[in-house]
């Protein structure tokens, strides 16, 4: 990653959400070619192997300072890498795609609330409005432009699991503000190793349930895509983005994930692009712009206050 690109937080986080949106399409392409729990396991085996080969030496150099925080590291990997994907997979068996999309749109609200609760990060009215506008955009996409269908949806165990999944990843985003002082790539390397170990029980469950099977050639291609882009590069970009602008502002961008998933569904799977996609995308971008404008105004005010006066 070039130094120039690494200094653009919005571009980094938008790219992360694009790759996460691609993960939804990849999951559909994987059906019949590799079991979901096998993907969860193999993705972290591949990622941890690649990252350790590149940054394992850096992790070892920082290990003396990391050992006292091992509990924090394990917790962060579990809620951010293992729990979210696993809970989403099981939620999909007992809830609708509409519910999942809407609940994912609630994630930035949890991030802002967590940043406020644990770090005292102020949440301004403009930020709250921005999140609300972006959430309306997500609802527009998730309900195919017919928000009235929400009145007919009920809460079920899948909804509860998806809500826990969103809380889990929001907790991961908030926790990143207290991550150890080490290069982001090395930090991600260590978390990927922990995630790989934590997914071993999932394979045991898959085998016991009789649903495990080795990927077909297409399954391997999909698994490699998931490992390289949604699992690896996206996390590196997201970590860097959070470092630059903080978890509260970064979390709002997560609203783009269902938007990208819809667009990629059109391009890759041949689904129809409707007016509600355009409306939803516009609202999400407007909401993000509101939250970013608030922070920009604060930075300018601080700079003006620090400027020497004649």
Which short descriptors sum up this protein?
0% strand; mainly alpha; 310 residues; globular; single chain
Characterize the structure shown.
There is one protein chain. 46% of the residues are buried. The longest helix is centred in the last third of the chain and has 32 residues, at 275-306. The protein contains 13 helices and no strands. Helix 2 packs antiparallel against helix 3 (70-91) and helix 2 (36-66) packs across helix 8 (184-198). The protein is globular. 77% of the residues lie in helices and 0% in strands. It has one domain (5-303). By secondary structure, the chain is an all-alpha fold.
Short description:
Helix content is about 75%, strand content about 0%. The chain has about 300 residues and is mostly helical.
């Amino acid at each position: 990653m070039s130094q120039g690109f690494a200094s653009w937080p919005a571009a980094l986080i938008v790219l992360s959400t694009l790759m996460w949106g691609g993960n939804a399409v990849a999951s559909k392409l994987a059906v019949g070619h590799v079991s979901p729990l096998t993907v969860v396991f193999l993705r972290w085996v591949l990622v941890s192997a690649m990252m350790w080969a590149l940054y394992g030496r850096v992790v070892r150099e920082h290990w003396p300072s990391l050992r006292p925080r091992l509990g924090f590291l394990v917790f962060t990997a579990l809620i951010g890498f293992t729990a979210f994907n696993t809970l989403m997979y099981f939620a999909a068996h007992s809830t609708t795609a509409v519910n999942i999309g809407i609940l994912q749109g609630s994630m930035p609200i949890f991030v802002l609330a967590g940043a406020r609760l644990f770090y005292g990060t102020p949440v301004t009215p403009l930020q709250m409005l921005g999140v609300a506008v972006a959430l309306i955009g997500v609802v527009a996409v998730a309900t195919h432009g017919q928000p009235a269908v929400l009145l007919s949806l009920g809460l079920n165990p899948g909804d509860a699991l998806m809500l826990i999944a969103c809380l889990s990843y929001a907790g991961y985003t908030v926790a990143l503000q207290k991550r150890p002082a080490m290069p982001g790539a090395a930090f991600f390397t260590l978390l990927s190793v922990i995630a790989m170990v934590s997914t071993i029980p999932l394979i045991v469950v898959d085998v016991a349930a009789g649903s495990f099977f080795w990927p077909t050639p297409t399954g391997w291609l999909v698994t490699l895509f998931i490992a390289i882009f949604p699992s690896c590069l996206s996390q590196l970009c997201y970590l860097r983005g959070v470092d630059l602008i903080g978890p509260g502002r970064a979390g709002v961008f997560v609203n783009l994930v269902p938007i990208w998933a819809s667009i990629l569904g059109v391009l890759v799977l041949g689904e129809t692009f409707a007016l509600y996609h355009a409306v939803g995308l516009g609202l999400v971008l407007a909401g993000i712009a509101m939250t970013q404008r608030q922070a920009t105004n604060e930075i300018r005010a601080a700079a003006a206050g620090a400027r020497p006066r004649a």
